[in-house]
Specification:
Blueprint (H helix, E strand, L loop, with lengths): L13 H12 L6 H4 L4 E5 L2 E4 L4 E4 L2 H4 L8 H13 L11 H13 L2 H4 L2 E5 L4 H16 L3 E5 L8 H5 L9 E4 L13 H17 L8 E6 L2 E2 L5 E2 L2 H13 L4 E4 L23 E4 L11 E5 L18 H16 L2 H20 L5 E7 L2 E6 L17 H13 L2 E2 L1 E3 L5 E4 L7 H20 L1 H10 L1
Bound molecules: 4'-deoxy-4'-aminopyridoxal-5'-phosphate (PMP).
């Protein structure tokens, strides 16, 4: 009998080859690339086109970076202008017309009371480096070394920023409760829960035996992003301002993710009217290119030359793209637009939750939205009797979204919060398409037979 050769494997499509080489050559620590196996080749606004020819609605927006979506014409124009001008692209931290214009535009957007008496430090081009700079600044200014940070926080991946993030440990960081309605640690939620959280903070600071190292600063995200989209109540933010001011503790607002209109105000601290001592800014301020700064009350400016240095603090293209983005958001009222559209999307998602018991909570502010997925059939957990988080379902929803051409990120303590961070230029029709695709993905994932098996295997 003739032996037949096995049929040769069909050749890989170019994008499959790229993905395969990526998985063979890149680090095990890679992140988004694992859950989003796509190869972007073109992008405009909300849409990314993959090398496979498929189009996706991108609600990850470079982890909240792209205030104007991909390749906005004003951003491209600003970049081209610098390139065509012959200006140097690398200038360390020297003065340039591009930097001067960026600083002027940034200061014009900041709360007046703050900007009128502020200094800026250009940092290495990542949010985490600016967080480090903020810590160095307040430690130098106060002569103290402790830090106050919150449960669920995320501030970056360098040693100091990581130590201040929830889930990390550092003897110099005192962890305080961040108020949350859903899964409130005090079992009450609402104003009362936030008040209890504030009282805990006050008590820890005033108790000489609380074991708290003298704090050089308090760092807070006005809306926690990676922690699962937890908006800080405005009254609680004001309490944090009072508590820190009364004890001469600088308040550091980490607006890396919440800045530039994202939450429905140009800067999220504006919702509460709080004037912080330090603001940490990155992501959207670079108009899709890397840029990070801290802006702070000038009295804190007591650190020495070189106290926070770095080679890449002069990204001219990012400053030009950033200035164009800031101006566009300001001139076109995109923060207000984010507030209105975000409220409508939250309402649609809450309506969806009433038909889907696996949606435990829908929350957010502006166009920073989270949908927490739970297992409604499992025994309740926690003080508020909420259903337990369902990571298997969340992963399935993310994959079903991708199949429907929608890119979403997962966040939160157990990676069970579907996060939406669309560009502020999102149209009403696009917003409807996003919610429809998510609803469809949710329905498909919830009835998937794999889900039950996988959930059972985990328990
Ligand atoms: N702070 C916040 C609030 C963030 O969301 C992030 C990034 N997600 C960072 C700091 C760190 O920024 P980067 O990843 O650019 O270092």
């Amino acid at each position: 009998m003739a032996v037949t050769e096995p049929a040769p494997a069909p050749p890989l499509a170019p994008h499959e080859g790229i993905l395969r080489r990526q998985s063979l050559r890149e680090s095990a620590a890679r992140t988004y690339a694992r859950s989003l196996p796509i190869v972007p080749v073109r992008a405009r606004g909300l849409t990314i086109e993959g090398a496979d020819g498929r189009r996706y609605l991108d609600c990850l927006s470079g982890a909240g970076t792209l205030a104007l979506g991909h390749n906005h014409p004003v951003v491209l124009e600003a970049i081209k202008k610098v390139l065509d001008s012959g200006a140097p692209l690398h200038v360390l931290d020297l003065a340039t017309p591009v930097k001067d214009a960026f600083t002027t535009e940034l200061f014009a957007t900041l709360p007046r009371e703050f900007a009128d008496n502020a200094r800026i430090q250009f940092c290495g081009p990542a949010g985490t480096d600016a967080v480090e700079a903020a810590f160095t600044l307040v430690r130098a200014a106060t002569g103290r070394s402790g830090l106050l940070a919150f449960t669920g926080a995320y501030h970056g991946m360098t040693a100091g920023a990581l130590a201040a993030s929830g889930g990390a440990e550092d003897v110099r960081v005192t962890r305080l409760p961040f108020p949350q309605d859903y899964r409130c640690p005090f079992g009450t939620g609402g104003e009362h829960g936030a008040e209890l959280a504030a009282r805990w903070t006050e008590n820890v600071l005033d108790d000489p035996k609380s074991g708290t190292p003298a704090p050089a600063g308090m760092i807070v995200e006005p809306v926690q992003g990676e922690g699962g989209v937890n908006p800080a109540p405005d009254a609680w933010m004001r309490r944090m301002r009072e508590i820190t001011a009364a004890r001469s503790i600088p308040l550091i607002a980490d607006e890396v993710q919440t800045g530039v209109g994202r939450t429905g105000a140009f800067w999220a601290v504006e919702h509460s009217g709080v004037v912080p001592d330090v603001m940490v800014l990155s992501k959207a301020i670079g108009g899709s290119l890397p840029l990070a700064v801290i802006v702070y009350r000038s009295e804190l400016d007591t650190w020495k030359p070189g106290a926070h240095a770095g080679t890449f603090r002069g990204n001219q293209l990012a400053m030009a793209a950033g200035a164009a983005t800031l101006a566009y958001v300001r001139e076109n009222g995109l923060a207000d637009r984010a507030a209105g559209l975000g409220a409508r999307m939250l309402a649609s998602l809450r309506a969806l939750a009433s038909h889907h018991p696996c949606i435990g909570d829908v929350r957010g502010r502006g166009l920073m939205i989270g949908v927490e997925l739970v297992d409604p059939e499992a025994a309740p957990v926690g003080t508020g009797g909420e259903a337990p988080p369902d990571p298997v379902l969340a992963t399935a929803v993310q994959q079903e979204c991708l199949r429907r051409g929608l890119i979403v990120e997962l966040g939160g303590r157990h990676s069970t919060v579907v996060r939406l961070l669309p560009p502020l230029t999102l149209t009403d029709e696009q917003a409807t398409a996003v919610v429809d695709r998510l609803a469809d993905a949710l329905a498909a994932a919830a009835r998937s037979p794999y889900r039950r098996t996988a959930t059972a295997a985990i328990r």
